[in-house]
Structure formats: structure tokens, C-alpha cells
Design a protein that fits this description.
By secondary structure, the chain is α+β, with helices and mostly antiparallel strands. The protein contains eleven helices and nine strands.
Length: 280
């Protein structure tokens, strides 16, 4: 089978199962824009963020060209690129997926310790871990680790093995770590220089932090899952580094979360994910 035919066959199969696809040049780079779209002459800026004015029939705009439309994939505008294509890629965010791209053995080892099992695809240097759920893409979230979802593309390397799991909070936290910490509005207390007494040891200060977290969880009327995670994140960011928290404090938070319908397993996962997000 000619390479062009093989790549097109793969692209049509992927499109048939709901993955928006695009051709890649030799290596893993997308094809450049056509002359009409060069330097955004077509007005593709909105298109790169959402549905915009550019409807170029050529495979322009990198991930923005990804499609499941068989007529486009087999049409004359794409025929020349299949002859030149070196691989096929897909837009994970367009299919509601997120790929954790693990680039080396250390990154893979971290994933196996930290992330829930899911579909895994071997790559040249590491692995792709694929989850259900789309988020913002971000490179370099940890050494050797990129998160690829919306506004990104991933080279197709085969179906992999395993059962695809729901995107865990720990991956979301890697992408929005700073924003998540800010949205949790943690109380930041500086430890005095020279080994002075830690202010976290104040019973009143600690009690107020736990009570506020309990209240935030109990008052939630929607997005309980996210509220629990953010409450845990806030408590840990304020009190988690100095050994102030006890099992009694944790039990109070878990009890509040379970009172809103969260399972004990989810509480444990949310707590672990908050620890990971804060580097603890």
C-alpha cells in the first residue's frame, strides 16, 4: 500500500470513530498555510480560538484544519498533501479527549505513581496517556510532560491498550495550577526567619481555616466536586506544610464532603490531587 493511501485510510478510519484528523509532514509538523491564508490574510485569528471566518479547503491552520468530514479528507484540495504526508495526527480536544504526553522514562514513572490507569499508547521515547475530557493544552507542566487537548494536535501512533478513564483532577491541576491556587484564595502565612514559632500552630487560626472550608463545602449548590477539591486545596496551601493538620481535621473535611454526596474514594482522590498540585 502506498504511503499516501495508507495515511488516508488511517485518517478516514479515525474520522469514522469521531477523531478530527489532519496530515503531518515528514516528522510531525503540520503543513503550512496556503498562499491565501499566509500571515492570516484570511482572517483566521478567530478561527484559531473557535469557529471563525476562514473556511479554506486546504489543510491550513495546523490543528484548526482537523476534520471528520470524509468529503474534505478525500477532496481535491487535500489530495496533494496525502502524497506528501509523513504521518496522521488528530485534535484530541475536538473529540473531548486529553493526552498526557510523557516524553521520557522519568515522566512515565511519575505517571504510573500518580495518575489513574487509562488507555496508554507507546511512543518513540515514552507514552501517551489518554483520558476522556477536554481542557486547555499546556507544554512543560512537569519535566518531560506536556498536556495536549484543546488547540493542539497529537500524532497518531496506534490504538494503544487499556480502558480510557475520565480526566482526573491531578491533570487539570497541572494545567491550571496557578489559577486553581488563586481561585481557592488560600491564606498565606509567612514562617518567621530564624526558626520562630509557626503561626499555623495557633488553635484559633487553624480552627477558623477548617470551619471556613467546611462551610464552603456545605454551602455548595452546584459543582460540588470542584468545590471540594478547591476547599481541600485552600486548607493544604495554608496549613499543609508545617504539620499542623491532624487526622481529626481531615475527617471533618471528608465528612462535610460526604454530606454533599461525595464518596470516600473521591475525597481521598481530591486530597491527593491537591497535594500534588501544591508539590507536597
Amino acid at each position: 500500500m502506498r504511503a499516501a493511501t495508507k495515511h488516508l485510510h488511517t485518517a478516514l478510519w479515525l474520522a469514522g470513530i469521531g477523531l478530527p484528523v489532519l496530515p503531518l509532514r515528514a516528522g510531525k509538523e503540520p503543513f503550512g498555510n496556503c498562499p491565501a491564508c499566509t500571515r492570516s490574510a484570511c482572517g483566521d485569528r478567530p478561527h484559531m480560538k473557535a469557529a471563525g471566518p476562514c473556511r479554506c479547503p486546504a489543510p491550513c491552520h495546523a490543528w484548526g484544519a482537523a476534520t471528520t468530514d470524509e468529503d474534505i479528507l478525500t477532496g481535491p484540495a487535500w489530495a496533494r498533501v496525502w502524497d506528501q504526508a509523513g504521518a496522521v495526527a488528530y485534535h484530541p480536544g475536538g473529540a473531548g479527549l486529553t493526552v498526557v504526553d510523557l516524553d521520557d522514562a522519568d515522566a512515565v514513572a511519575w505517571a504510573r505513581r500518580t495518575l489513574p490507569a487509562t488507555k496508554v499508547v507507546p511512543t518513540t521515547r515514552g507514552e501517551h496517556w489518554i483520558y476522556r475530557g477536554a481542557i486547555q493544552s499546556k507544554n512543560g507542566v512537569r519535566p518531560g510532560i506536556d498536556v495536549k487537548s484543546l488547540m493542539s494536535y497529537v500524532r497518531w501512533r496506534g490504538p494503544g491498550a487499556g480502558t480510557m478513564a475520565v480526566l482526573p483532577d491531578v491533570v487539570r491541576a497541572l494545567v491550571v495550577k496557578d489559577a486553581a491556587v488563586r481561585s481557592a484564595r488560600p491564606v498565606v502565612v509567612a514562617v518567621p526567619a530564624g526558626g520562630g514559632e509557626c503561626p499555623h500552630r495557633s488553635p484559633v487560626y487553624l480552627e477558623r481555616g477548617i470551619a471556613m472550608a467546611e462551610q464552603r463545602i456545605t454551602a455548595a449548590t452546584s459543582a460540588v466536586h470542584a468545590t471540594v477539591y478547591r476547599a481541600f486545596l485552600a486548607v493544604l496551601s495554608a496549613h499543609g506544610r508545617c504539620g499542623c493538620l491532624t487526622e481529626t481535621h481531615t475527617a471533618r473535611l471528608f465528612t462535610a464532603a460526604q454530606g454533599k454526596g461525595e464518596s470516600a474514594r473521591h475525597c481521598e482522590d481530591a486530597w491527593a490531587n491537591a497535594l500534588t498540585a501544591l508539590g507536597m
